[in-house]
Amino acid sequence: MAGSSPPLNAQVVCCQVQDFFHGFQANVLRRVRVKQFVKHASKNLQCNLSMPEGVLTFSVLNYVPPGIKSEMFLSHPSNLWRLALLCLAATLLVSATACKSDYPASGKAASADGKSQPRQVKTVKVAEIPVGEMVTVNGNLAAYDQTTVGMKVPGRLETISVDLGSVVRKGQVIAQLEQQDYKLRVQQAEAGLAQARARLGLSPDGADDRVTAEETGTVRQAKAVLEDAKLKRDRAAKLVEQGITPRAEYDTVDSEYKVALSRYQDGLEEIRNRQGLLAQRRSELALAKQQLADTFVYSPLDGVVQEKKASAGEYLAAGAPVVSVVRIDPLRLRVDVPEREAHSIRMGQSVRVTLEGDPDSYLGYIKRLSPTISEQNRVLSVEADVRNNGRLRPGAFVKAEIVTNQTNTAVTVPPTALVTFAGIDKVIIVENGKALEKTVTVGRRGTDWIEIKAGINVGQTVVVDPGNLQSGQAVAEQ
Fold first, then answer.
1. Contacts of 328 (CB under 8 A, 6+ apart)
2. What is the CA radius of gyration of the chain?
3. Mean of the pLDDT values across residues 320-327?
4. Which of 60, 101, 249, 272 sits in a 20 to 30 Å window from 87, CA-based?
5. Helix (H) or strand (E) holding 222
6. How far apart are the C-alpha atoms of 412 and 125, rounded to whole Å?
7. 0.85 exceeded by pTM
């Protein structure tokens, strides 16, 4: 019985009485039956004293201590019996008194005046709540996004600022190449651009590359020569018509006009070539600047570094991996639902996720469904998004409960009302002002509830946070 005093073996008591007479010289051996005495003492002293099978005896040595007249004992043998029983009773009384002081009877706390005081406890009613029908499957958590970040340009890795497990933000610099070579390329491209602009008559450091070909010096000069040649040809043509000038002179000025026209067209073509060269130099400068910028490696997403693939000082080719980054909030829950239950799975249904060794559960929602049933294993592939508070990890094996019918109910108690010891689940109910321990069968678990399949009924009162409350102890509800 919980809280009762530990049994005190009567044989030990008898040995203590024998020790009291140890050293006495034996004359007459008397036997004393103590079984009934121990039983009577146990009842009156409210102490559990065990008695071995058979008749327990002990020896009382007929010895008269110095200073006591022997006639007292020799003439009255019953005095020796009284002495033995008094010693035995004294030993039992001391043992029982100690037992009562250390172990209150029946597990009830004793107050200063000897009366038990009810213990104040917090209670709740056993309730039936809607929890929904569920499809229970096993699955795995996976990163929502996973990417390997590599170098866009070749070079020697100068610094890397992250390592395994580092939390990174989108756009954060995580590595950098040596930049000297790329800075020189930018300067070279800037010089080529300035030269191309100068050939078009533009300022070297300007940003506007627009130019009109007819407004350039080369084209204006060629155009002036062309116009002069055209006037000469027209004049010669009139003189030939009037018979004043011979035909040979007209042919000469006509040839000069054609040469001037060709030079004018060449001038326009040259300007167009220079404009193209200017655009090329502008692109080369942009490319050089981009390559310089690409010496920095940025995180493409918010996440955590899963693997570091390079170290400072390494020469990396273009495309060489530097780190692997994963996004872990939310996580993807991937499960396979058997074909016989696939008909009840819908988009948006809630999923309760639990892990081995983690008392908490995590909520998710179905976001993606496979359009087909797998022909190999007859399952439907389902993905749900699960919010991560930092305690979940990609790759974890989990149990998922997909809620398919919200109208289903269950008898529940708060998680703090359940006491588990040695694999046995119990709750403590309050009945007639006393605590009463009940063994229960546990079912599904939620964030703030535990299903009780058997052991207690709806409406009964259970103790929350019972601590060391014992069955049978008087209680008072707060």
1. 143, 144, 303, 304, 388, 392, 393, 394
2. 52
3. 96
4. 101
5. helix 217-242
6. 9
7. no
